[in-house]
């Protein structure tokens, strides 16, 4: 590569951000990323020569069948691109940042074919690889490197904090990236609009069987057909999603029949047969209006131990990638993947015990409560429905322990939640639902419907906040309070964000059963947990705050440390960081207190009076600054008897997520400023 070469503009669009500087090794960013490796990469040379990519140009209008040379060139490009994707996504796995190999690896065939079309007929296409499965972002970064926007040496830092290569493409962050994919199945509608803005040009959309499950695609398909839009889809139909095989858990679902039913032209092809795929893609381009090529293939074909399995959905482990490259004789790739590249939060937290995942504890506690029920009552009164994320929310434990109450469903959050709510319309039954907190934003209307129908639904939303979120901004769980969108006289809605695994178990035991020992639960109940592990919270003497004997009380805030100088009020994963900060401040002689607010949707009147009469109140959370708990807390303070009677308010401040992410896992808290040191600085600033 010649670092001084200008980027190749083949794949640019009207949304191209030319203000972003190409990522080259002479930038401070590259040195910063290398520092975390502690010199282990001293002799690193990127193990692939991207200049060997053959810039093939093929006009689909005049080339009915491929020549032997074109076939050879395209196959060469497929092999090169797939090897590079395996390498740098495996780097993400080895460094602890995860990622996704299989989807990007699969789609390379159609990508190199359309790249050839783009190069031959630049005026006939919007030459961008729009993708409705944004986790396949490795394709976007690979082509940004091929085009000269990202030096190949950066690719090994895939998904690392501040690498500008997060787990989904984000417009305006990474040079060469032409769009933000957002969440799974959210691009087709946008691509329709792009086609409308570019009449006479075809627009490519890379799809997948998982993304085609989303309801957005049904609406987009109808509009594309009605308007005759030149949208050309290639759907990777590999029969694999996170939780298994759609053919098994969603029998009857067919990508091609669904699209055909909407009126979209459909061609089914063998995704690994290059000539067959060329003919299908050519036919789609030459056809009038929307047309889909459904590419049938196994997930990650050719990668041993991964092919055809849902393990290919995630990043290929180094233990698999190393023999993959050994067979190909790529010693440099093998040697790099053997290096120790994993990083972790360097902070040693005070009053913090062992680390564990609250999301895992929630799933296990639901299993425990179900196991304590009478079998007939359990089967008749509970229905648990999954949205392809049971492995992440730990609801797959319910599936394995109590399959009689479990419905394994697809990537259909709106319909699945509505089904849970419909089941829970019976006063003695309840639906149980789980997914990621980011996806709650899709459910606002269904939540309102559930409330109007007086449904009983228990929900677990994991991946709340931003901690450990290398998928980055589009997966941030910032808006849990969107669920509390009803009227004051509406059916009960309650939101809880526990601070550690012990407390999470207690929250579930108190809020999940419709009938418990001396209590009852009705309405909509939402429990939020993080993707990251959190430490058990400890008292100053080292005992567990939420250990044996603790019982959660809905609506009650909890004082973890008393303080005469004021209080930090925190929730969720911000609590352990705040506890560390408060402990260190107290050691310096600052008598600051700490309150854990688990019930995030409503004020605790008694505790609000206590805080209102204190000198200082700092709300700390990982939720969104615009819509999180802190956005309500100031109003609650003003409504206290203390403030309403003219006795004044405490000095008030807020720390919350306020800006787009820059990738990484543990780095996100530091990027947003709700880390311990930032809390300490803010308290001192407020007390000054």
Summarize the structure.
The protein has 688 residues and is α/β, with parallel strands linked by helices. Helix content is 35%, strand content 15%.
Description:
Helix 6 links the parallel strand 2 and strand 3. The radius of gyration is 26 Å and the shape is globular. The strands form four sheets. It has a six-stranded parallel beta sheet, sandwiched between helices. The longest helix is centred in the N-terminal third of the chain and has 27 residues, at 68-94. It is of the alpha/beta class.
Number of strands: 18
* Beta content: 5-15%
Envelope shape: globular
N-C termini distance = 54 Å
Number of helices: 24
What Rg is obtained from the alpha carbons, in whole angstroms? 26 Å
Blueprint (SSEs and pairs):
Elements: H1 28-35, H2 68-94, H3 102-120, E1 125-131, H4 138-146, H5 188-197, E2 202-208, H6 215-227, E3 231-237, H7 246-249, H8 255-262, E4 265-270, H9 274-286, E5 291-296, H10 318-327, H11 331-337, E6 352-356, H12 358-371, H13 375-381, E7 382-387, H14 390-393, H15 396-401, E8 406-409, H16 413-423, E9 430-436, H17 444-452, E10 457-462, E11 493-496, H18 501-511, E12 524-528, E13 534-537, E14 558-561, E15 567-570, H19 574-587, E16 593-596, H20 605-612, E17 616-624, H21 630-638, H22 641-644, E18 651-657, H23 667-672, H24 676-687
Parallel strand pairs: 1-2, 2-3, 3-5, 4-5, 7-8, 7-9, 9-10, 10-12, 11-12, 15-16, 15-17, 17-18
Antiparallel strand pairs: 6-13, 14-16
Helix pairs in contact: 2-3, 3-9, 10-11, 12-18, 16-17, 19-24
Provide tags for this entry:
18 strands, 688 residues, five-stranded parallel sheet, alpha/beta, six-stranded parallel sheet
């Amino acid at each position: 590569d010649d670092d001084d070469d200008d980027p190749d503009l083949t794949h640019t669009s009207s949304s191209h951000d030319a203000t972003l500087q190409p990522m080259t090794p002479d930038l401070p960013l590259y040195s910063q990323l290398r520092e975390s490796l502690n010199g282990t990469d001293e002799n690193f040379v990127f193990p692939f020569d991207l200049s060997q990519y053959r810039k093939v140009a093929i006009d689909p209008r005049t080339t009915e069948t491929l020549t032997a040379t074109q076939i050879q060139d395209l196959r060469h490009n497929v092999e090169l691109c797939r090897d590079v994707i395996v390498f740098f996504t495996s780097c993400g796995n080895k460094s602890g940042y995860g990622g996704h190999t299989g989807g990007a690896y699969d789609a390379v065939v159609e990508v190199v074919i359309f790249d050839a079309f783009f190069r031959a007929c630049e005026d006939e296409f919007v030459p961008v690889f729009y993708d409705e499965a944004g986790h396949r972002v490795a394709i976007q970064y690979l082509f940004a490197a091929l085009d000269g926007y990202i030096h190949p040496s950066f690719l090994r830092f895939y998904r690392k904090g501040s690498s500008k290569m997060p787990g989904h493409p984000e417009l305006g962050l990474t040079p060469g990236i032409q769009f933000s994919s957002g969440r799974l199945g959210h691009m087709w509608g946008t691509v329709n609009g792009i086609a409308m803005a570019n009449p006479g040009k075809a627009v490519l959309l890379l799809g997948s069987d998982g993304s085609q499950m989303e309801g957005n695609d049904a609406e987009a398909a109808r509009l594309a057909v009605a308007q005759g839009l030149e949208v050309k889809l290639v759907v990777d139909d590999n029969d694999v999603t996170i939780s298994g095989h759609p053919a098994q858990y969603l029998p009857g679902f067919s990508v091609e029949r669904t699209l055909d039913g909407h009126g979209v032209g459909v061609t089914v092809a063998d995704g690994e047969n290059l000539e067959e795929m060329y003919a299908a893609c050519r036919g789609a381009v030459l056809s009038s209006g929307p047309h889909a090529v459904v590419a049938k293939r196994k997930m990650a074909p050719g990668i041993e131990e991964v092919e055809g399995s849902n393990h290919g959905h995630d990043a290929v482990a180094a233990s698999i990638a190393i023999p993959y490259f050994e067979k190909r004789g790529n010693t440099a790739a093998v040697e790099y993947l053997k290096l120790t590249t994993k990083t972790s939060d360097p902070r040693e937290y005070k009053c913090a015990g062992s680390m564990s995942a609250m999301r895992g504890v929630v799933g296990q506690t639901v299993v425990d409560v179900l196991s304590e029920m009478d079998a007939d009552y359990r089967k008749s009164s509970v229905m648990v429905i999954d949205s392809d994320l049971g492995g992440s929310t730990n609801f797959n434990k319910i599936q394995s322990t109590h399959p009689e109450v479990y419905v394994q469903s697809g990537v259909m959050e709106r319909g699945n939640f509505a089904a849970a709510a419909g089941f829970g319309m019976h006063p003695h039954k309840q639906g149980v639902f789980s997914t990621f907190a980011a996806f709650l934003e899709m459910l606002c209307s269904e939540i309102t419907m559930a409330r109007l129908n007086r449904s009983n639904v228990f929900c677990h939303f994991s991946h709340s906040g931003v901690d450990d979120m290398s998928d980055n901004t589009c997966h941030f769980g910032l808006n849990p309070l969107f669920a509390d969108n009803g009227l004051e006289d509406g059916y009960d809605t309650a939101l809880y964000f526990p601070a550690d695994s012990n407390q999470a178990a207690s929250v579930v035991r108190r809020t999940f059963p419709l009938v418990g020992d001396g209590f009852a639960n009705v309405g909509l109940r939402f429990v939020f947990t993080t993707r990251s592990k959190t430490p058990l919270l400890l008292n100053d003497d080292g005992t567990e705050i939420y250990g044996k004997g603790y019982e959660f009380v809905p609506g009650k805030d909890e004082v973890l440390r008393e303080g005469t100088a004021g209080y930090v009020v925190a929730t969720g994963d911000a609590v352990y960081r705040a506890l560390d900060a408060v402990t260190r401040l107290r050691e310096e002689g600052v008598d600051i207190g700490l309150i854990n607010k688990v019930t995030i949707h409503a004020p605790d009147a008694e505790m609000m009076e206590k805080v209102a009469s204190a000198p200082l109140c700092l709300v700390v959370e990982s939720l969104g600054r615009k819509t999180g708990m802190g956005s309500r807390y100031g109003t609650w303070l003003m409504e206290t008897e203390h403030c309403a009677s003219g006795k004044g308010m405490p000095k008030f401040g807020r720390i919350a997520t306020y800006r787009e992410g820059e990738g990484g896992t543990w780095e996100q808290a530091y990027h947003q400023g709700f880390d311990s040191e930032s809390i300490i600085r803010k308290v001192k600033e407020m007390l000054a």
